[in-house]
Amino acid sequence: MKVSTPAENHRYRQRGAIDLIVVFAIMFGAILVISAIKVFPMYMDHWTVEEALQDVLDEAATQGNVSKKKLRSMLSRRLEVNRIEFLGENDVSFERTKSSLTATLDYERRSSLIGNMDVVLKFPAITLQAERSGG
Question: CA-CA to 15 of 20 to 30 Å: which in 26, 32, 79, 120?
């Protein structure tokens, strides 16, 4: 019967620790991948909203005096085409001056990550502006 030495026992215990480290590394990597899959589309939607809002401002600036109701309608159509459904009326505000048209966008997005864990992205207030060409 072979008797194992303390050095051999230590080597087997280390091998178990390395397996555990690999499992934790794989879990950590999976969480990072899942997070990226959940978060990146929210940033893409944000960029789409910014672009649509800037387009509305530019179009309204060339048309002249456009009501806030019309601005919201124009923005709503563009967002509907891009399947953006998370913005509320209070998330976008419009302001007119004699020389420019300004929109402020301020909102947050929430998405389920894993189980009862959520990801919350707060997009700080962004102000977009277009110079008005007419009365």
Answer: 32
Q: Tokens standing for 105?
A: 């966008």
* Cα angle for residues 21, 26, 29 (degrees, 5° grid): 125
Assigned token pair, 85: 């459904």
Give the H or E element holding residue 101.
strand 100-114
Burial of 116 (0-12, 13-18, 19+ CB in 10 A): exposed
Domains in the chain: boundaries? 40-131
User: Which residues partner with 104 through β-bridges?
Assistant: 93, 127
Q: What count of Cα atoms within 13 Å lies in the side-chain half-sphere of residue 37? A: 9
